[in-house]
Amino acid sequence: MPSVKPSTPKPIGDELTLTRQPDPTQLDNIKAQLDLVLLALEALANIGSEAMLQAAADLNLTEVVADRVSLWRLRQSSPLRRGQGRKRLDVEEARSLVLITCHLAKQHQELIRRAVALLEQVTEQNREPHQAALLGDYLDKFSNTYQERMEDSETVSSKELTHLALKLLIDLLFYSAASGTRRLWMALLDRSSELGA
Question: What are the structural domain ranges in the chain?
Answer without folding.
Answer: 24-196
